[in-house]
Amino acid sequence: MNYTVEKKLSGSRYPVAALLSLSLLSAPIDLVAADVNTNGHLSVSQSKGRTIQGVVKDDLGDALPGASVVIAGTTQGVATDIDGRFSLKINTDKSVVLVVSYLGMETQEIIVTPKVHELSIILLPQHKALDEVVVTGFQTISRERSSGSAVILSKEKLTQIKAPNITSNLEGLVPGLSTYGGGMSIRGNSSFSLSSQPLIVIDGMPVENITNRFSSSSSTGLDLVNPEDVENITVLKDAAATSLYGVRAANGVIVITTKKGNTQKPAVNISANFYLTQKNDLSYNKYAPTADILDYEVEYMLNDPTYQGNPLDYFEKFNNPMSYGYLSEVKMLHYKMAMGDMGQAEVDAQIAQLRNRDYRKEYLKHFTRHSFTQDYNVSISQGSDFAQTYFSARFQDSKPESTDARNTKIALNLNNTFKFTKWLKLTTGMNMNIDQQRNNYMSGASATYYMPYDQILDENGNRVQLYPFNQLRAEEINANPEFQHMGFNMFDEMEAGSRFKNRDIYLRVLANAEIKLTSDLTMDVRFQYENISGKDEQFSSAQSYEMRYLINQFTSVESDPYYGDFITYNVPKGGRLQEANRNMQNYNFRAQLNYSKVFNEKHALTALGGFEMRENKIRYSINERYGYDDKLLSTQLIDWDYLSKYGVVGLLSNNSMKLSPNVTMADAMHRYISAYLNAGYTFDGKYSATASVRMDQADLFGTDPKYRYRPLWSVGASWNANNEAFLKDLSWIDMLKLRTSYGITGNVDQNSTPFLLGAIGVSPDTGDNFTDIMTPPNKLLRWEKTSTFNFGIDLAAWNRLNASIDVYRKYSSDLLAPKRFDPSMGFPEGRVNNGAMKNRGLEMSASYDWIRTKDWRLSTQLTAAYNKNTIEKIDFEPTNALDLLKNPNGYYMSGTSRGTMYAYHYQGLNETGDPIVLDENGNPVSYDAVRNIGAIYAVGQLAPKWNGMLNLTVQYRDIEFFTRFVYYTGHSMRNDVLPLYQGVGLNNGSMHRDLANRWTVDNQGEVPSIDKYGSDPNRGDHWKYADKHISSASFIRARNIGLAYHVPRSFLQKLGLKTAVLRAQVDNPFTIKFNDQGIDPEAFDLNGGYRNSAVMPTYTFGVNVNF
To answer: In terms of Cα–Cα distance, which of 108, 104, 133 is closest to 16?
Structure first.
């Protein structure tokens, strides 16, 4: 016989069919208890027997070998066999409590009366229980009592898709969280000038984000955590959930809980993952073929009026050896023909040979590779009732696409928990990351820097010397052995040994004491220390082209009729070493009282209050050394006083050239202090209310209490409708909850100050100290403020469906935004708190288990999020149309969204192939500048309005198939078009494929002509920023497709292993694009209108073993 029993916890009803199925498999029985008693234990009874037998399975019907079945309060117990069965002798006729546990499953306690002798027990995976707990970093509360908008992600959800970082795992799982474009935001952007990065909290304490300003590795708080160490992640989105974090919570909060030790037998986990990313072949970039670029170069030169008059006049500028002018091989051939050294036939024959070359392919062949990453992890979890320990180590070795580059990462994590007494528990933690990057540092190291018909190696394998500078002058310099050679070759540069090295070391130490004062009152005392030290080292070898050029540039020659030439190396021979050192130290102390009590089984009250102190210190310095010998570690002195004041006329210019030392030092310290309160009340498990208030103070603001003591607060309410009597008969409803909240959070800019801010420097002209006034004083400087209203519904049904929907409105005011000042103040403009912005949105998520049997499982998860951003107030509005066209994220118009795109009204080409646009009065214009903002109009926005994800999981026995599709839509982009060049030269290996379709007298198509001499450069803007080139940036990408094989437990038991999983996965295999240009919006500058490196597929192979 099978029974479905309900388990009552804190006034809520949860169906135990998924938690514990109890079957009495013996002879006929008498059921004593069909419900759960008040302490949550299941009571059953049957005929008398002293031996209890049974089987333990998971919710899919698979046996759980090695599960622990222990009589509570004793050491008497057994472990289940390979079939999940057990037999346990009982030495008493009284009722006993069995504690049934298994790694990764929720522990169950079962009261068994003397008559029970056989059980069938089903354990629930632990992540389903964790989903019912909201971790805010200040407290852990049941989901039913939370009024905030929060998404809880278990380790199983996060690690189903294998990725080397947490950011990739989060994509799409949380509606409203966007990782588009490499950044991260929750519910849109709420500031003009500050980052949209959410606050990262690790094990209850916020960590500082490491930005590009501080670290060349561009790390964030998420990158500090090994994905294998994550127990769960809670994403807090509205004010009720985030307000306790005060001025750092406007962008949302991501709370990470890491794994801890256990009181069971030691558990060891080992994983190895290998990532292979296909190298880029440049086919996506739509570059013009060599022949088209060559034909255009010849056509451009031959049609030049000066060349047509007299070719020697055209080349006259190159006869000036001091003229900086790139002489391509095509130009050199025509120059020799103009000088009479070659004939037309010989020139044509050599040009014909150039058509078959492709510098770009040659570069990719020799200097790029498939990138490959090895990622190894090991963790150990063990402990006793007194102490538990979790330790993990990670080593990651990456070889990027560039053949000379290598990155390594070492991560160590240690968590200890000590239970000294019933009233004192101490938790300590240490996290260390060591990141190192290395690659050859080379100027001109690009597949498209030189002309596509140039060569690295000739047909015989000999190195070809290229001349970025005037080749005529370079050949003269090369003839003198006292000067530096002026040729360039990629193999020479690789062998020269120039390099860029970066090392970042992150150390985080955490201590937390939990003191139980009474049964209802506890105190938490936490301290966290962070130290981030980094060093960048850029070494330019004496043999590198960069240093050879620089030395020649500042080498002066004085002629004497009696003693000959005197050569002075004002920049000494040798290399250059540039170093940047940085250190950040963060201290965070928090003390908090927690109160929790249930009155009369219906009134639940929680409260907490505390204070927090923080201090941030940053030190940054840059210095450089010349004449550096990498082996001897020696340097040479430079007369900076003379070189920076007066300069010298070197070998490469007729003008005096100056050089100043690159020396910088910066030091900053900020302190913060905060106090906060939070309270929550729940009546009868149905109605809950919450309230929070926090006050932050910082040394960033003036003395006006109006701005220093502004409180930030929130209120919220929720209704657990499923606990109402009138819904109890609807057994298919597992949970139905309505919630709403309103509150105010903030944002702070550490680079702003109420005081006059200046930087001290040394004048290169006089050598005297000076102070550069950077910002005017601003005594009214204050926090940026964001108010958020949220309404949401959560639904769980049929033990298969989980769904939620949220609507929100965020209004951000007192935003730091540009403002024009009275010129008499000495500053034309500055940043003050006078901007406002609004975000409105809708978020939806739903997951459903379509099939869940012993052999089969089919489930889907869908998320969708909509965000509408509107600029409500901005004082500084541009008057030049180009500002809005070129920099939509830096210039704003009231009533539009942040990042609005603009375009000209395009009217086609005129009779000479020039683009026509309309000015502000509707008049057609080709050559004249159109700068009035009335001539442009909004054509879209850069940020997606909609984003989301579809997950599909199919499992048959031990084989699991999974895939994740992500989508972004509602935004626009500016197509890549042919720039209207006025010539050719360096970097023209990247000319657009439309070069062949340009307008000519014989080919009057839709692409403008580009061979205009003396034409107005405005025509290029008219063409690039025409509304004709606006397309949808929407796309759907297959982000991951994979297969996992869970090795059968029967086989693993013979090897002494618990679990083993083999995995194969491909990332980014294909994309559905909603534009007709073949543009991948993730590999494209949406407003700049040019293609970046293609997103190439990554193939992942991995193994994970537990024992």
So the answer is: 108
Total-model pTM? 0.85
Interval 857-872: pLDDT, tens:
999 999 999 999 999 9
Running DSSP on this structure, what letter comes out for residue 1001? S
| 322 shares its domain with 229 | no
What is the H or E stretch that residue 25 is in? none
The bridge status of strand 555-560 relative to strand 564-569 is antiparallel
Closest CA to 272 of 1107, 963, 1097, 1060: 1060
Give the pLDDT confidence of 3-36 residue by residue, as tens digits. Answer: 333 333 333 333 333 333 333 333 333 323 333 3
Residues in CB range of 180: below 8 A, 6 or more apart: 943, 944, 947, 968, 1082
- Four-CA torsion 898, 901, 902, 903, nearest 10 degrees: 180
953-984 residues labelled b (16+ CB within 10 A) or e (exposed)? bbbeebebebbbbbbbbbbbbbbbbbbbbeeb
Which backbone phi and psi does 530 adopt, to 5 degrees? -125, 140
Per-residue pLDDT tens over the stretch 65-115: 888 898 887 878 888 887 789 988 888 878 888 889 887 677 888 878 887
How does pLDDT run across 205-220, given as a tens digit for each residue? 999 876 544 444 445 6
Sequence-distant (6+) residues with CB within 8 A of 75 are none
For 442-495, write each residue's pLDDT tens digit: 776 788 889 999 999 999 999 999 998 888 889 989 999 999 999 999 999 999
Helix, strand, coil proportions of the chain in percent (round to 5)? 15, 45, 40
Using CA atoms, how far apart are residues 261 and 384, in angstroms rounded to an integer? 9
Strand-pairing partners, residue 671, are 615
**Alpha helices, H only, 593-677:** 640-645
Same domain, 137 and 211: yes
Q: Does residue 172 fall inside a structural domain? A: yes
The first and second tokens of residue 899, run together, are 């990042």
Asked whether the beta carbons of 432 and 411 are under 8 A apart, the reply is yes
Closest listed residue to residue 151, CA positions, set 857, 953, 949? 949
Looking at the fold, whether 191 and 266 belong to one and the same domain comes out as: yes
Residue 1054 lies in a domain: no
Main-chain dihedrals φ then ψ at residue 592, nearest 5 degrees: -145, 140
> Are 177 and 98 contained in the same domain?
no
Number of domains in the chain: 3
* CA distances in angstroms from 522 to 220, 265, 516, 588, 609, listed in the order given: 33, 30, 4, 20, 11
Q: Which residues pair with 582 in a beta bridge?
A: 534, 620
Strand order in the sheet with 96-101: 42-44, 108-112, 96-101, 68-71, 77-79
What are the two backbone dihedrals, phi and then psi, of residue 353, each rounded to the nearest 5 degrees? -70, -30
> What counts of helices (H) and strands (E) characterise the chain?
19, 57
Give the Cα separation of 989 and 359 in Å (integer): 8
Do 234 and 156 share a domain, yes or no?
A: yes
State the CB neighbour count (10 A cutoff) for residue 158.
Answer: 20
Residue 341 exposed, middle or buried by CB count within 10 Å (0-12, 13-18, 19+): exposed
Percent of the chain with pLDDT over 90: 56
Structure letter (DSSP) for residue 124 = P
Distance CA 502, CA 395 (A): 17
**Domain of 464, in residue numbers:** 290-357+445-487+983-1016
The reply to whether 219 falls in a domain is yes
Residues 142 and 263 in one domain: yes
Rounded Cα–Cα distance for residues 843 and 284 (Å): 34
Nearest C-alpha neighbor of 337 from the set 319, 317, 355, 312:
312
| Contact between 652 and 583 (Cβ < 8 Å) | no
Render pLDDT for 338-393 as a digit per residue (tens, 0 to 9): 999 999 999 999 999 999 999 999 999 999 999 999 999 999 999 888 999 999 99
